[in-house]
Amino acid sequence: MTLAQRVGQLFMVGSPATSASPATLDAVSRLHVGNVMLTGRSRAGTAVPARTARVLRAATAGGVGMFVATDQEGGQVQVLSGPGLSTLPGALSQGGMAPARLQAVAAGWGRQLRAAGVNLDLAPVLDVVPGVAAARTNPPIGALGREYGYTPATVTSHGLAFAAGMRSAGVAVAAKHFPGLGRVHENTDTAASVTDRVTTRHDPFLAPFAAAVRAGAPFVMVSTATYTRVDPTRPAAFSPTVIGGMLRHDLGFGGVVISDDLANARQVSAWAPGARAVGFLAAGGDMVLVVDASPVAAMQRAVLGRAGADPAFRAKVDAAALRVLRAKAAAHLLP
Length: 335
What we know:
This protein is an alpha/beta fold. It has helices at about 5-10, 20-30, 45-60, 90-95, 100-115, 130-135, 150-170, 205-215, 240-250, 275-280, 295-310, 310-330; strands spanning about 10-15, 35-40, 65-70, 70-75, 75-80, 120, 170-180, 195, 220, 225, 255-260, 290.
């Protein structure tokens, strides 16, 4: 692969699930972007998103397959619905099932996603919200019922059951949002300066993520909140302490670190698009998630420029591309 092709593997770009975005098609064909996310809401069943995925895959060159992802958690977060797709209960309801039952039904949901052209679910949510009262003041997770329960043990057992079911159907998973959004009071999508003042480097609420790593989760998504007791100077997605220290070193994660959205999230709006991509990769991340294609060209230029000028950064780009390609090999996406 050329450097530009390797850099392209480090991006996941959003497109509406209902049709392939021309801008995303251009990013795939011209900028070598190697992964896409189906976004918005589609109520047309499996056929429409499957067609969108086929069009996006057809724009790729070089024979390397594509991760086609979506947010299919359940409850208020379900991108794909309609004929052939179950209405998934929210995570709190899933947390009321026996883990073996949840794993079995999640396998069925995974088979439906495969029929819709999806091979990566940006789930399960492994954030721990510390109680019903706390949920009411936790906009990104608790207020939407996205938590499996209110203890690390419940979140672990049910999050891992969901993941195991999906993976048995051939759908990779991304555990999110490391190191946890269960104790913040604003949403990183809609607010700046979202801050967690509680989580520590060896916090007991990290247990679900540690268990997911031990179980072989291929992706972990890192949040863009700032964790003042871990790294008070920058958001987690830009923090070598969070990615290299906590996730890679402490938990031993060797898979793909994917960012939360770095396109439209208010939390990162103070950084120029290029600085977001470079900052995430410099901190040890692997795949830059941008929910729409508008900032991708600027991000790619910044990454290529830094890689050309800084051998140490270029080595990080190469290592990240290798991790992405290893994940693709495990998902049978390489020629």
